[in-house]
Amino acid sequence: MKMRDLPGSVLFACSQNAVRSAMAEAILKSLHGKHIYVDSAGVRASEVNPFAVEVMREIGLDIARHRAKTFDELLDGSFDLVISLSPEAQHRAVEMTRTMACDVEYWPTLDATAIEGSREAVLNAYRDVRDSLLKRIRERFPAAPKSAV
């Protein structure tokens, strides 16, 4: 896939915009900077999850100031691609895009907030979500070779 084949704008969507979609937004922004407009939203808004902040810092990305927002709060409602990470968000994304030319992809992603156990067990669940998103995003949105930039 060439840079010109990448979408110009991507929305990541999940249930609360506090873990999965916030992570995905930060990862894609870190890989493609200003080449792709990236945003995220949730069906409902919640505060960014402290475990998500912690595991993202482990890879050098700071999402501590991420402000969760709902679909209704999006400044730009027009995207080339919406990637939903939860069943609830997939339903909302399909509704939202009925009247626009926009692709929708569903990437079922573990809800790490449902994991219980020791702090380390919970952190490992968040790391698994982060790492799976990182892998999938790198595959779906390959970076340009350094010589081409």
Automatic annotation (TrEMBL):
> Is Protein biosynthesis a UniProt keyword of this protein?
no
Q: Where is the Phosphotyrosine protein phosphatase I domain?
A: 8-143
Q: Which CDD domains match?
A: LMWP_ArsC (cd16345)
SMART domains in UniProt? LMWPc (SM00226)
**GO biological process annotation, one example:** response to arsenic-containing substance
User: Which InterPro entries does the record match to this protein?
Assistant: Ptyr_pPase (IPR023485), Ptyr_pPase_sf (IPR036196)
Key words, A-Z: Arsenical resistance
What is the name listed in the Swiss-Prot or TrEMBL entry for this protein? Low molecular weight phosphotyrosine protein phosphatase
Organism phylogeny: Bacteria, Pseudomonadati, Pseudomonadota, Alphaproteobacteria, Rhodospirillales
